[in-house]
């Protein structure tokens, strides 16, 4: 087994757990409406770590990047297009 | 083996491994959009009922939720390690790590079940008997829990499928490092990590809406 | 009715037809161009003919730019024109006459401010903008008057508006354009456009009916609203509330428009006024949409002190 | 000529068909299935057109009429047109065009057919049990609360069929990425492959959203609780967003494959390389992407915000541009060609003309001020039948005629082919042109009864539909006839380029006896020097 990679995996997992602790901790502070945004941002960082290291996006296979990127872009289209309507109504 | 090989359109194993990965990623794209429709619904209704969302989120079980998140994160680690083992042609090591992954997945599901039972006891199952304090936010609260059950339920179904898939791989590992075993583990790993990612977002959306 | 266009009986009708003419003109030009070119090539380069086929071209960046650019410019003009026309259709002039409409499977209930109520008929005066305040009691309907070139979906749970100014007295067809169930195609009616004098006469006809505001005021007392919404009562005074931006419990504000007032009556707890307990009972199921509209009409009439 | 081994006579048992993983056989399974569903949808159209002969007809009852147009729309869209070209011609041709032995995941391919049939059975079941009356758009809260028909069964059918689309799309994507023959670079791919690649992206990223929207409708019906009915705190516009997020791109699922077919046929029968290859290829991808940004143009008068409406209107105009680019490039391909007006070419040219008309009337709809008038009238019906029947279906028929010799090894009678192409073109225009007029005059769609002043145009339309119906039956007959009595086609009756024409017809089970290699650009036709076809 590739020792280097295994070490990386452990480090990433540690970072993920730290982020989990961070976001739970933050939820006890009163950050107003920013709290939710921060919690989502932390989630995004966690998701990126999982994607990049665990799911081996770091390998950089073009077709894989293309599929992963397309999924994100399309999700963005769905959400932004619909919320654009909701937020600008009236 | 031979029957499969005759059918296979591939000329070499590298091509096959890449095809499997691209296929899995394409499928995950589908899954992103499948969950995406629900995520959109969540944010849509959150915008309509911000107060209801805050109030309803206070009834979720942060302790169990955080524990479950931790479990899933660690299970992703063991999954990734299983993939490494499979790639290194060590099916026994891979099987052990797969078992650990599955185990954490199963515990996750049990915890989830406990949470559901608790919520249902508290009258948070949407419908006739739905009961929510403050009553003034009862309708948004009901929507929140409708989405909660739908989204975490769909997620749990995916987990269940993942656990079944991994157990099939554990059984397959007994046949040794057969051709394609490493690819299978790798592809299952992608799926498992994806479920983890979904949960990473569900966690703040339902447990951390604002404050405690 | 002509074969090509329905009667032009509103201020926007001719403008719609003009834009239609423009888009169709462009369309016909391109159809002629493409169709003509195909026909011409098919004849000229038919395999049976020996013509000069030397030096064929397979790629031309200037041409590609040209036939990307021209349609782009044309469509942009259509977009701007269409959007501006639509904005006109969406923004009722401030002095519009208001008529309240409830769509329900499968009929149109209409109330005039002066109190007359009709079914599947709408009487309006010529030369005065009319604003329809519309909601649905069940599924989505759509209020469509071809002669006026206007259409707006009518949704349950909120108010939508639509306006027009009729230019020609006469009777015009009204359709429900959004599929709403079995008798969707029977959910039709008539718009009768009357001269100003005829309209006054029509309004006055039976005489005794209370105006919508009066009916709303009566209802306000009968339904028990007045017991709380009075000085020193359990609820806030409602004078001057309409059109205000209200601060809400739990942060945020809401504009007190018709939809807001309607929601306050049917689902008071959805948006609770800051500083007040969520004490108001829901009137859902106790008042029908037409009655809610009367109340809205009354509350709108209450000017601030 | 001696009989050679091919995929048809390789094995002949029933199970060799039902358990086949051969993409060519799966294509034929799909061919039979979608033809069946086309007949179901056409049957509903027939009854509808008959009912509309008179303003207050009583051929069927109002509820029945509503069920008919739902059945017509649902079968034609979800069970016929969406799978038609991808699952039949795409399945057959993609592996051949890229020079592969089969699809990347042959068993997944077979599974997709079973899944499709399961979805189709649910769809049929809901029709047989009594039908669904929501229209193909399933707008809430009518569908989620008020309708008391078999909405859930139908929704389940559509969801299942959707998964079959996803499987097909996934297979195409991986096959195109990973199984191209040596030398077959992206810029050497046939345009049909490009267009199906773009289609596949829509399949896998759009379909799940529709599935979820329908799941939510079903949940709302089952639990009496949900996110769409305003009486429950929901918002019906959310459903419309979810629905059209898929269903507008779905119209490009229906047209892109046809565009691909036309891009193959036109160069072949003009004996000339396609004009602007790169632009035609890129425009497919552009359509797939921008096509996902315009869905709100179905909602201009739905209560959607004015600003969102304006953005959607602008983007709808943008998505028209790549279509325009394609039309111009096809037309330019004819220039200095050597043109043979064979049946596939007639269909292809018919496609270009009718698609242009349908597309240009889309420009009317994308103008908000005009849509306020024509929305939900027969103008819409005419617009989309011009594109879907005049365009997509014509392309499908053209493709079937073009590749029929390859698929079956037989030639059909050219004379009857031309007759049917002519009948379809004529009947089509007579059916749907009057509907443009009807719509602008104000006749709403989904109307069982209509005011008497609209009768003349409706009679014309029904008359046209009967010609059109005959036009469809003729090819059905002579294509079947050709199976037994048609002349042998030989490997390449059109002397077309493209890998699929280099192998025998019908192709052998493994497509190519030796893996082909590609060393030239596609469409290496030569109109200048070549002798007669
Ligand atoms: C295959 C199917 C298909 C295709 C390809 C299209 C293509 C287009 N459609 Fe259509 N459409 C439908 C099927 C399709 N549509 C259906 C089924 C509905 C109704 C659904 C329902 O409600 O039941 C509908 C409804 C619909 C609406 C909503 C109407 C309403 O309900 O009120 C709109 C509004 O913008 C619209 C616009 C367009 C546009 C701008 C295009 C463009 O993509 C067209 C682009 C093509 C061209 C423009 C022609 C070629 C170009 C030239 C020859 C060059 C010249 C070009 C310019 C000057 C720009 N369509
Ligand atoms: C691919 C898509 C497709 C295709 C091919 C067609 C084909 C046809 N359609 Fe379709 N149509 C839709 C998609 C399609 N349609 C959709 C999506 C709607 C909207 C539904 C909704 O509102 O929800 C619609 C709605 C629609 C309406 C509007 C109904 C209404 O709003 O009230 C009409 C009316 O004329 C119509 C007519 C036709 C006709 C005449 C054909 C012709 O091309 C059909 C020609 C065939 C025949 C005339 C029959 C010939 C006979 C046979 C082939 C044998 C018959 C079989 C047996 C006897 C068993 N269609
Ligand atoms: Cu009301 Cu259609
Ligand atoms: Cu569209």
Topology record:
The complex is a heterotetramer of chains A (90), B (212), C (305) and D (533).
Chain A: H1 3-26, H2 34-54, H3 62-87
Chain B: H1 2-7, H2 13-48, H3 50-57, H4 62-87, H5 91-121, H6 138-173, H7 181-207
Helix pairs in contact in B: 2-3, 2-6, 2-7, 3-6, 4-5, 4-7, 5-6, 6-7
Chain C: H1 13-44, H2 61-90, E1 97-104, E2 107-112, E3 117-119, E4 121-125, E5 129-136, E6 141-145, E7 150-154, E8 160-165, E9 170-176, E10 189-194, H3 196-204, H4 212-222, H5 225-228, E11 245-247, E12 253-255, H6 258-266, H7 289-301
Parallel strand pairs in C: 1-5, 4-10
Antiparallel strand pairs in C: 1-2, 2-3, 5-8, 6-7, 6-9, 9-10, 11-12
Helix pairs in contact in C: 1-2, 4-7, 6-7
Bound molecules: heme-A (2 copies), dinuclear copper ion and copper (II) ion.
Question: Can you tell me about this structure?
Answer:
The complex is a heterotetramer of chains A (90), B (212), C (305) and D (533). Chain A is mainly α and 90 residues long. Chain A has three helices and no strands. Chain A starts with a helix and ends with a helix. With 212 residues, chain B is an all-alpha fold. Chain B has one domain (26-207): Four Helix Bundle (Hemerythrin (Met), subunit A), CATH 1.20.120.80. By secondary structure, chain C is α+β, with helices and mostly antiparallel strands. Chain C folds into two domains: 1-38 and 62-209, Immunoglobulin-like; 212-301, Cytochrome c-like domain (Cytochrome Bc1 Complex, Chain D, domain 2). Chain C is built from seven helices and twelve strands. In chain C, the strands form three sheets. Chain C has a five-stranded mixed beta sheet with strand order 3-2-1-5-8, with helices on one face. In chain C, strands 4-10-9-6-7 form a five-stranded mixed beta sheet. In chain C, strands 11-12 form a two-stranded antiparallel ribbon. Chain C is elongated, with a radius of gyration of 27 Å. The mean pLDDT of chain C is 89. The model of chain D has no long low-confidence stretch (mean pLDDT 93). In chain D, 67% of the residues lie in helices and 0% in strands. In chain D, helix 7 (191-223) packs parallel to helix 9. Chain D has a single domain, classed as Cytochrome c oxidase-like, subunit I domain (Cytochrome C Oxidase, Chain A, Up-down Bundle), CATH 1.20.210. The chains are: A mainly alpha (90), B mainly alpha (212), C alpha+beta (305), D mainly alpha (533). At the C-D interface, helix 1, helix 2, strand 7 and strand 9 of C face helix 3, helix 5, helix 8, helix 9 and helix 10 of D. The complex binds heme-A (HEA) (2 copies), dinuclear copper ion and copper (II) ion.
